Amino acid sequence: MADTLTGRVTGRAVTGPVDVHVDLLIPIDTLLAEEPGQVAGFGPVPADLAREWATSDEVQVRRLFTYPETGDLIGMESRSRCYRGGLARLVRVRDRTCRTPWCDAPVKQTDHITSYARGGPTSERDGQGLCERCNYVKEHPDYLVGGDAGQTHVVTGGLSASSRPPAPPGHPPPTRSPIRRTLMNIEWQHALRHH
After folding, report:
1. Chain segment 150-171, per-residue pLDDT in tens
2. Which of 87, 105, 167, 186 sits a CA distance of 20 to 30 A from 95?
């Protein structure tokens, strides 16, 4: 029926699969009981339908998890392989600069911390903002990346380092010894040159 309506409204026949993206707000009670889910821009949907969509491979569903009592957004993931739209913007705004330790380049790409091929979910917790160079370098077999959005760890050439997103405005950043930071920066750049 939707294909017929689309064809009549646009004057063009729908011949192939339609690329559908759904933002589905899921309270915990939707997963465990009969609390309805919410589709952004549409309204409530029955819990059984929300559970079916959340596990479907047919529809690109961005699952937005909400806290039961307040409805606050507490998590977001997508069944899509790539970071797009609101999820990509959220990661870019959170990280502001490249998450590779001591690379302060602007974020140009958003990608997984644990790669999608190794089972990393397309979620805010597994997303990081990177400059283009660092995003390509992390695919090198001797370059290991792990952790989550709170703290990302990088190991290469026997050296390890970690990074955190910048502190929110109004909160002081964590203090680090300038001498230690300079030494680690020199070691880090040396290790990257020799790979």
Report:
1. 888 888 888 888 888 887 666 6
2. 186
Residue 65 corresponds to which amino acid?
Answer: F
Distance of alpha carbon 78 from alpha carbon 63, whole angstroms: 6
Report phi then psi at 111, rounded to 5: -150, 175
Question: Among residues 130, 161, 164, 160, which one has the least CA distance to residue 150?
Answer: 164
Cβ neighbour number for residue 170 with a 10 Å cutoff = 5
- The pLDDT assigned to 177 comes to 42
Whole-Å CA distances, 79 to 59, 74, 97, 105: 9, 17, 26, 29
Q: Buried b vs exposed e over 116-128: b needs ≥16 C-beta within 10 Å?
A: eeeebebbbebbb
Q: Look at residue 116 in the predicted model and tell me its pLDDT.
A: 83
Beta bridge partners of 144: 155
Q: Give the DSSP letter string of 106-161.
A: BP-EEEESS-GGGT--EESTTEEEE-HHHHHHTTSTTEEEEEETTEEEEEETTEEE
Residues 6+ apart with CB under 8 A from 33: 47
| C-alpha–C-alpha distance, residues 37 and 44, integer Å | 6
- Specify the range with the lowest mean pLDDT, choosing from 11-25, 41-55, 82-96, 128-142: 11-25
Which of these, 46, 15, 17, 42, lies nearest to 29 by C-alpha position?
Answer: 46
Strand order in the sheet with 143-148: 143-148, 151-156, 159-163
